[in-house]
Write a structure and sequence with these properties.
heterodimer; A: alpha+beta; four-stranded antiparallel beta sheet; B: mainly beta; 7% helix
C-alpha cells in the first residue's frame, strides 16, 4: 500500500487530494512555487517542498524538480492532480523509471489515446461510432480531395496530434481545400512536430458529453454516468451539468456501455473521462476522445453518485481490485457546476496583481464549493484563474438552478473582478434553461438573435473550434 | 521613563523582526508599529519578461551579507579535498562551493562573485528545496 503521496498540483485540487490522503492514512507532500508559498493548502500537508520560481514551466511543469521533490521526501507515489503534468506521458514514464507509483493511466495508453487517429481506429475496433471520415493520415492533397467529394462538404481538416482543436479548420468547398491543407500541415508540424492530417465530416449542433470511467488492473471497469461539458473552453469548465440533459435511458445506457468498450479496447487502467459528441436531434453519438486521469469537473460526478472518486483512483492505482459493482453506482437528482473565474474567460490573462480583500464561500444543503481562496490572498498573473468551483445538487434541474443562483450570489470575493454576473446571466438564459445549447449556438447568436454580450461571449468562447 | 533607558531598550530589541512594539510602565506607555520591512521581490507581471534567473540566487540583506540559494530541488553534497568549503574561507568567483544532486544529475553550484564564507547552512546529504539558503558570504 502507498505510504506517502506527493501531490503535484496546487489550489483547490491539491486541497482535496491532501484531504482524501489524510482520510486514508497516507502521508502527504505538497509542492509550491515561490509565489505560492502562502497558499493554504500547504498547511494541510505533512511536508512541503518549494520546486521553483513563479513561472509554471519552471515549477509545477518542471518534471525534474517535481520528481526530485518526491526523491528527497521519499514519497512512493505521485498524484498529478488535474491538468499541469497529469496529461504528460513523458512525466509518467519518468516516474515509473524512478520506481515512483504514478496515479494515473499508463503512459503507453495515454500516448495511444492522445493521437486522434489512433483513438478513432481503436473506437472503431470496439464497435463504437466515430464521425465519418479518414482513419489513416492523408498522404497527399489528392487523397484529401477525394475524401472531401465522398463525404460531402463542409468537412473538418484536423491534425492527428492536435489535442485542443488548435489546427482544426472547417472547409466549405473543394476550392478552399488546397490552401487549408498546406497551412494546417505547416502549423501541425510546428506545434506537434507531426504534420499528419486527416479529414472528417463536419456535423453541426453537437453537444459534448463525458462519461466518467474507472478501470482496475484486473480488467474490471465501471462507469459513473455522464456529464455535459459543452460549455467549457480550453481553459476549463464554464458551466457543466450531470447527468446530461435530454438523454433517454436507452441513449444513456448505450453511451456508458460504449465508453467502457473504448476503455477495454485501449487496455485503459485508472480514472478517465470518455468524451462523445451527441447529435441530439438525430439521437446519434460519436466517440471523440479520452481525457486521462482526473478532470476539473470530477466534483459533479461525485455529487451525482455520492462516491469519492479520488479515493477510488488511489486504491486502483495501488493495485487493488475495484470495490464497486456497477449496480451499486446510482445517480440521483440533478447536479450543476460553475467555475468562478477571474480575468479573461479563455484564461489567457493578463491579470492585474490584486489582493482578495475579503472572501466568503457559500454553503448549505447539497452545496459544494471547491476553493483555495482566502481573504488576503494575492492573485497574480501566475495564479490559477479559477477562484472557486461551485457544485450544487437539486431534486431536479430547476431546483439545482435556483440553488446555484443563490450560491453564486452568496460567494463574496472582494478586491478582484470575477465572472459571477456572467454565470448568473447564463443560468437565467432561456436557451440554457431549456437545455438548448450546442456547438453551433455561438454562430446563431452571432447572427444577432441575442443582444446579451455576456452570454454570447460564453457561448462563443465555449464552442470555438471545439467540434 | 528616561529617554536613555528607552533608547537602551530599543537598541536591545533592534535585531528582532517585530511589527508591533509596546512598552507600559506606570503612567508611561509607548506603542510602535512597523509596516512590513524588506518585502520579498514581487514577480514581474509581464509574461514576456520572465524572471531573471541569473539574478535570483543572490539576495542582499541589510548587513551586506549575501546568500547562495539552491537553484534546484535535490540533495546537498559538500566538496572534498582542496575545494572543501569552511567558514572564513575566501573563494573566488565561479569557483565551485557544493553540488546539489537532482535525479542523479550533479548540479555544481558556484560562487557568484569573490567573497568570504560566513555561514554554512546545509549539511552533507541533506535534502534542499528550490530557493533554500546554502551559504552566506560577504
Amino acid at each position: 500500500m502507498i505510504k506517502k503521496i506527493l501531490v503535484a498540483d496546487r489550489g483547490a485540487i491539491a486541497f482535496r487530494i491532501l484531504r482524501t490522503c489524510h482520510e486514508m492514512g497516507i502521508k502527504t507532500v505538497a509542492v509550491y512555487s515561490n509565489t505560492d508559498k502562502n497558499e493554504r493548502y500547504l498547511q494541510l500537508a505533512d511536508e512541503t517542498v518549494c520546486i521553483g520560481p513563479a513561472s509554471l514551466n519552471e515549477s509545477y511543469l518542471n518534471a525534474y524538480n517535481v520528481l526530485s521533490a518526491a526523491f528527497i521526501t521519499k514519497a512512493d507515489a505521485i498524484h498529478p492532480g488535474a491538468g499541469l503534468l497529469s496529461k504528460e506521458p513523458e512525466f509518467a514514464k519518468m516516474c515509473m523509471k524512478s520506481n515512483i507509483l504514478w496515479i494515473g493511466p499508463a503512459p503507453s495508453t495515454m500516448e495511444k489515446l492522445s493521437n486522434s487517429l489512433h483513438a478513432r481506429r481503436l473506437a472503431k475496433q470496439a464497435d463504437v461510432p466515430v464521425i465519418q471520415g479518414m482513419m489513416q493520415p492523408a498522404q497527399t492533397l489528392q487523397e484529401m480531395k477525394e475524401t472531401g467529394e465522398r463525404l460531402g462538404y463542409p468537412v473538418l481538416v484536423k491534425a492527428a496530434e492536435g489535442r485542443y482543436g488548435q489546427v482544426d479548420r472547417k472547409v466549405n468547398s473543394a476550392r478552399e481545400l488546397a490552401s487549408v491543407y498546406e497551412q494546417a500541415k505547416a502549423e501541425a508540424l510546428e506545434l506537434f512536430g507531426d504534420g499528419s492530417l486527416y479529414m472528417e465530416k463536419h456535423v453541426d449542433n453537437l453537444r459534448r458529453i463525458e462519461v466518467q470511467v474507472l478501470c482496475d488492473h484486473s480488467g474490471n471497469s465501471v462507469h459513473f454516468f455522464d456529464r455535459d461539458s459543452t460549455l467549457s473552453t480550453t481553459a476549463g469548465m464554464v458551466a457543466g451539468e450531470a447527468p446530461a440533459l435530454g438523454l433517454t435511458p436507452q441513449q444513456r445506457y448505450a453511451l456508458c456501455t460504449a465508453a467502457l468498450q473504448v476503455c477495454q479496447a485501449a487496455g485503459y487502467r485508472n480514472l478517465g473521462a470518455v468524451e462523445f459528441l451527441l447529435d441530439n436531434p438525430a439521437g446519434r453519438f460519436y466517440f471523440s476522445k479520452v481525457h486521462p486521469g482526473l478532470q476539473e469537473s470530477y466534483g459533479l460526478t461525485e455529487m451525482l453518485t455520492g462516491i469519492d472518486l479520488i479515493k477510488q483512483q488511489i486504491l486502483v492505482a495501488a493495485g487493488e481490485r475495484l470495490s464497486l459493482a456497477q449496480n451499486e453506482i446510482r445517480s440521483s437528482g440533478a447536479v450543476l457546476g460553475c467555475s468562478v473565474k477571474t480575468g479573461r474567460l479563455d484564461g489567457k490573462g493578463p491579470y492585474d496583481k490584486k489582493e482578495i480583500t475579503f472572501f466568503h464561500q457559500p454553503g448549505g444543503f447539497q452545496v459544494r464549493c471547491d476553493t483555495a481562496a482566502y481573504s488576503g490572498q494575492m492573485i497574480t498573473h501566475y495564479s490559477d484563474p479559477c477562484i472557486a468551483t461551485l457544485i450544487v445538487k437539486g431534486e431536479n434541474r430547476m431546483q439545482a438552478q435556483a440553488k446555484m443562483l443563490v450560491a453564486i450570489e452568496e460567494l463574496t470575493c472582494e478586491g478582484i473582478e470575477t465572472n459571477q454576473e456572467t454565470l448568473a446571466a447564463l443560468l437565467q438564459d432561456q436557451d440554457y434553461m431549456k437545455g438548448d445549447f450546442h456547438t453551433g449556438t455561438a454562430e446563431r447568436m452571432n447572427e444577432g438573435s441575442k443582444e446579451d454580450g455576456f452570454i454570447q461571449q460564453i457561448y462563443s468562447e465555449a464552442t470555438m473550434g471545439k467540434n | 521613563m528616561e529617554t536613555k533607558e528607552l533608547m537602551e531598550l530599543l537598541q536591545a530589541v533592534s535585531d528582532i523582526q517585530w511589527t508591533v512594539f509596546e512598552v507600559r510602565r506606570d503612567d508611561f506607555s509607548l506603542r510602535l508599529e512597523r509596516t512590513q520591512c524588506a518585502e520579498e521581490k514581487e514577480p514581474q507581471e509581464d509574461a514576456e519578461q520572465p524572471l531573471d534567473e541569473a539574478a535570483m540566487p543572490i539576495e542582499e540583506n541589510q548587513k551586506g551579507m549575501k546568500r547562495i540559494l539552491s537553484p534546484v530541488v535535490g540533495f546537498f553534497h559538500a566538496l572534498q579535498g582542496d575545494q572543501i568549503v569552511t567558514i572564513g574561507k575566501k573563494i573566488k568567483q565561479s569557483q565551485p562551493v557544493c553540488v546539489v544532486e537532482a535525479m542523479k544529475m550533479m548540479n555544481e553550484i558556484v560562487m557568484p562573485e569573490d567573497g568570504e564564507i560566513l555561514f554554512m547552512m546545509a549539511e552533507e546529504g541533506q535534502p534542499v528545496e528550490y530557493g533554500q539558503v546554502l551559504y552566506c558570504y560577504r
